[in-house]
Design a protein that fits this description.
Subcellular location: Cell inner membrane
Largest sheet: none
Structural class: mainly alpha
Number of domains: 1
Family: Belongs to the CcmB/CycW/HelB family.
Number of strands: 0
Low-confidence stretches: 1-16
GO molecular function: heme transmembrane transporter activity
Membrane topology: Multi-pass membrane protein
Oligomer: single chain
Distance between the termini: 49 Å
Strand content: under 5%
Radius of gyration: 20 Å
Function: Required for the export of heme to the periplasm for the biogenesis of c-type cytochromes.
Length: about 240
């Protein structure tokens, strides 16, 4: 009877906790998305940077479609990576400056859940648009049409991983006045595997090779980042605030 009562109590506690977790996640996600869409200039900066780099880079090369197609996977992926990195410094900084971040960490929901909501909002307004406009820029680089879908898939998976990993660096440097340079030094080495597999998968798609193992590895990196990064970023935020 005691064991049965204990089990029933645990089930009721878990049932009451899950809606609270979901409500906290949804409220944080909706709030961050609203704030990002209000700051349209900041929202457009990564997209403009991405488009400018991809557009201007071919001007320094010969107008050779074969040459452009050969460098297109690496160029598109490096440009997308730098565009995501450009937007990371503001992931937590505005909330840190106005005191919202401290209140967020004092909420009854686990910090990792609320941090995950902020990362999802960042990806929805940065990584997702980058992936959606990438085929238009790829046409300028003479990327073969059959590899456009692979480019979008790799950018969707890879940009989500970049946002998750980058959140850890943004959390560690949120209390620094000039944390942008330090953020780059911390995060770029961790971004390297994502860049290699992302650009390599698109290159293999151009050659007509089997892509399943490469896409599976990118999915595995995303899954590992999803499990670990929000909690690590939440711990880093508490460390930054305590310091």
């Amino acid at each position: 009877m005691v064991m049965g009562a204990f089990t029933l109590s645990d089930e009721r506690t878990a049932a009451g906790r899950l809606p609270g977790l979901w409500q906290g996640f949804a409220a944080t996600l909706a709030r961050d998305c609203r704030l990002r869409f209000r700051r349209r200039s900041e929202l457009a900066n990564p997209l403009i940077f991405f488009a400018l780099v991809v557009t201007l880079f071919p001007l320094g090369l010969a107008p050779d479609s074969t040459l452009l197609a050969s460098i297109a996977p690496g160029l598109l992926w490096v440009s997308a990576l730098l565009a995501v990195l450009l937007s990371l410094d503001g992931l937590f900084r505005d909330d840190f400056d106005d005191g919202t971040l401290e209140q967020l960490l004092l909420a009854p929901q686990p910090a990792g859940v609320l941090v995950l909501a902020k990362i999802v909002a960042h990806w929805l307004t940065t990584g997702l648009p980058l992936a959606l406009i990438s085929p238009l820029l790829a046409i300028m680089l003479s990327l073969p049409g059959h590899s456009m879908g692979v480019l979008m898939i790799t950018l969707l998976l890879g940009s989500a991983t970049l946002s998750l990993i980058g959140a850890i660096g943004a959390a560690l440097t949120v209390g620094l006045r000039r944390g942008g340079v330090l953020l780059s030094l911390l995060i770029l080495p961790l971004y390297t595997p994502v860049l290699i597999f992302g650009a390599g998968t698109v290159r293999l798609a151009i050659e007509g090779a089997v892509l399943t193992p490469w896409l599976a590895l990118m999915g595995a990196m995303l899954a590992l980042s999803l499990l670990a990064a929000p909690w690590a970023a939440g711990a880093a935020l508490k460390l930054s605030l305590d310091g």
